[in-house]
What we know:
The chain has helices at residues 8-14, 29-40, 47-58, 63-99, 103-106, 110-137, 142-156, 162-179. By secondary structure, it is mostly helical.
Amino acid sequence: MGRRCLAPAPYRRHGGLVLPQGGGASLRERDDAFIEREIAGRGWLTAAKLADAIAAGQITPGPVLRSATFLGWLLAGPGGAALATGAVFLGAFLIVALLGRLLPRLEKLATVREFLQGVSAAVVGVILAVAVRLALGAPWDLGTVLLTAASAGLVFLGNWPAWGVVVLGLAMGALRYVMG
Length: 180
């Protein structure tokens, strides 16, 4: 891997606490500038290859993970991909390892419980904001409305697990695509 190995210092400065959970982590414009300075600016990749890596990350779930893995692959092959992927998860694993035993004791404190309730409410708010943003950008037609209504009904009224609704939605979307 040599000099082309992903530098830990830039990662620690910017990405060390990325918690890759369910699309919660994403690349923003300031992140793109940071990545361009740290990767393309060092001559590790051309600007075009870097743009490809960011685009590959943004069109798939988990953009930070996908971009990091792709960049690692481009820079150092499979070993670089594995190292970059591991680095993305390292912060989350360290937090869990360090706080895992401490959290049950902390949860007994009223201020910590209140803080966690606030965080939970904020997460629900973010999920709702993303859902609204996705809904506003979706191509709405009768099929989309019916699929959305059926999905909501299955989750809220039929007590279906979310993964089941996702699989059903995937199958319905594929069927709709094949049927034209």
